[in-house]
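Action item from last meeting closed. Structure (259 res):
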């Protein structure tokens, strides 16, 4: 039944995308590398590459590869998706990912996002559902960015999740962004709540740790360099605190190319 569901979801996404002729002029490639140092657990090297290909004026196809490599474990996720324009200011992203780890366990990752983007604000809501062999989790994450001026904006996002064990978690992500010029933009902020969430993937960093007296928060800094009108390079640093005494760090480099 799970195999049929996977095939049906991928086939549906491909059917949506297969309604026009690919335009190679607007292909977008986003590649990232993250080094995460988990205090007391070990290090993680995460590689991700996303390619977005316009199909016609309304639809784009999305393919993403994700690889998390650790000393004793690794995980690979292949994702297929589509981005659909819903009007002049609105669009949605629908995707399905299939995961396979070192010990042969499989997982399913389903995502749905709707976004409204105008000159002064961007509003979005995301829905994530993950199915593991003996565990599942659903995350809802609404967020909004408001531009105070053309070069200064404030961002806020709320994560809420519930899992098959009856556990409920939440966190808030706040951030300020300022553009010094057309080429250089910086951001600073953080997250706080009763659990640490990934600001990249809207998922929990830790699936088992939970205690009323545990402190979960992070500090985030980011700089974006617009090399030219087609290429931007970003560096992100995140310092994460869990269990009051565990301090983790994450360094991420992102290259965004519009062909």
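Sequence:
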């Amino acid at each position: 039944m799970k195999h049929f569901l996977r095939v049906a979801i991928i086939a549906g996404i491909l059917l949506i995308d297969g309604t026009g002729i690919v335009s190679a002029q607007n292909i977008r490639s986003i590649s990232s590398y993250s080094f995460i140092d988990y205090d007391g657990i070990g290090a993680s090297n995460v590689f991700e590459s996303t390619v977005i290909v316009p199909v016609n004026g309304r639809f784009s196809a999305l393919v993403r590869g994700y690889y998390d490599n650790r000393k004793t474990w690794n995980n690979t996720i292949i994702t297929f998706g589509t981005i659909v324009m819903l009007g002049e200011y609105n669009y949605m992203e629908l995707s399905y990912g299939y995961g396979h780890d070192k010990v042969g366990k499989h997982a399913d990752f389903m995502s749905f996002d709707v976004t409204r983007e105008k000159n002064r604000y961007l509003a979005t809501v995301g829905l994530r559902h993950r199915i593991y062999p003996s565990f599942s989790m659903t995350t809802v994450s609404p967020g909004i960015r408001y531009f105070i001026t053309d070069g200064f904006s404030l961002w806020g996002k709320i994560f809420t999740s519930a899992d098959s064990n009856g556990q409920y978690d939440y966190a808030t992500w706040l951030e300020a962004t300022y553009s010094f010029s057309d080429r250089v933009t910086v951001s600073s902020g953080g997250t706080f709540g009763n659990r640490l969430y990934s600001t990249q993937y809207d998922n929990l960093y830790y699936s088992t740790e939970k205690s009323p007296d545990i402190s979960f928060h992070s500090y985030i800094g980011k700089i974006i360099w617009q090399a030219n009108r087609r290429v931007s390079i970003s560096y992100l640093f995140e310092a994460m605190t869990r269990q009051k005494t565990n301090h983790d760090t994450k360094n991420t480099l992102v290259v965004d190319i519009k062909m």
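Note appended to the action item: Residues 88 and 117 are 9 Å apart (CA to CA).
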